[in-house]
């Protein structure tokens, strides 16, 4: 049996995946167990390939038929509940304060920006640190979390409200029952979560709530060149 740290990667750019594999290949303590380009592949892959550290990009399509970014604020706590020994490291281009805060509160062990070359160059050491119980943040992400300016009402949304909005963004055609089943709650709970989020955001519809949450950067925003961007 191998005692190596097993790493899985979710990123929709093959060049990024190849770069991570290259960075990690030089460390005999680490092996790449699996790599995926669509979020729908994530759970089957983790079931088939035991993983100690999961590298997650944020703006990854849900599936080949659904280009919306997957609901990361739902995915992180769900995976951590299912896999007690799993650690999650988010590596992304998004630096919105609300998103950094939400991802870390969801249970991630680190938030690294893709242009943070000093950390990316030493990705193997970052992984070793996380396995040993450490938390790793890019300097910019850490500064955002430590910023003491007045929080907006939108940043006072609960983790479950953000999780529900994250699912709404990923699966816009789902019904209330679909969301309730996914979050293992009742239909009325989903309605209450969303209606209270609408009030905080000052909107009246699910679409408006998702749009405003994306614009505020408290759930996965559209990338600047996304064809789905308004």
Strand order of the largest sheet: 2-1-3-4-5-6
Beta content comes to 5-15%
Number of strands: 6
Helix content: 40-55%
CATH architecture of the largest domain: 3-Layer(aba) Sandwich
Mean of residue pLDDT?
88
Structural class: alpha/beta
CATH topology label of the largest domain: Rossmann fold
Number of domains: 2
Uncertain spans, ≥5 residues at pLDDT below 50?
A: none
Helical run tally: 11
Radius of gyration: 17 Å
Name of the level-1 CATH class of the largest domain: Alpha Beta
Task: Explain this structure.
It is a single chain. This protein has 2 domains: 5-146, Rossmann fold (3-Layer(aba) Sandwich); 153-216, Arc Repressor Mutant, subunit A (Orthogonal Bundle). The model has no long low-confidence stretch (mean pLDDT 88). A 6-stranded parallel sheet has the order 2-1-3-4-5-6, sandwiched between helices. It is 47% helix and 13% strand. Helix 1 links the parallel strand 1 and strand 2. With 230 residues, it is α/β, with parallel strands linked by helices.
Task: Chart the SSEs and their pairings.
Layout: E1 5-10, H1 14-25, E2 30-36, H2 42-48, E3 53-56, H3 72-82, E4 87-92, H4 97-106, E5 110-113, H5 117-120, H6 123-131, E6 136-137, H7 139-146, H8 159-170, H9 176-183, H10 187-201, H11 206-216
Parallel strand pairs: 1-2, 1-3, 3-4, 4-5, 5-6
């Amino acid at each position: 049996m191998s005692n190596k740290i097993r790493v899985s990667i979710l990123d929709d750019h093959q060049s990024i995946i190849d770069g991570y594999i290259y960075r990690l290949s030089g460390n005999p303590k680490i092996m790449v167990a699996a790599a995926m380009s669509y979020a729908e592949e994530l759970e089957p892959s983790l079931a088939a390939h035991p993983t100690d550290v999961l590298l997650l990009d944020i703006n990854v399509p849900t599936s080949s038929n659904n280009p919306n970014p997957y609901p990361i604020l739902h995915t992180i706590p769900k995976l951590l509940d299912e896999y007690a020994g799993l650690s999650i490291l988010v590596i992304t281009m998004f630096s919105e304060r609300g998103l950094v805060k939400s991802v870390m509160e969801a249970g991630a062990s680190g938030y690294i920006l893709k242009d943070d070359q000093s950390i990316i160059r030493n990705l193997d050491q970052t992984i070793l640190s996380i396995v040993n119980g450490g938390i790793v943040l890019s300097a910019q992400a850490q500064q955002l979390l430590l910023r003491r300016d007045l929080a907006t009402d939108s940043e006072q949304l609960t983790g479950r409200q953000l999780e529900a909005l994250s699912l709404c963004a990923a699966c816009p055609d789902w019904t209330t029952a679909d969301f309730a089943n996914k979050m293992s709650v009742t239909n009325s709970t989903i309605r209450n979560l969303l209606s209270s989020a609408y009030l905080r955001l000052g909107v009246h519809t699910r679409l408006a709530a998702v749009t405003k949450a994306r614009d505020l950067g408290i759930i996965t925003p559209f990338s600047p060149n996304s064809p789905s961007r308004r």
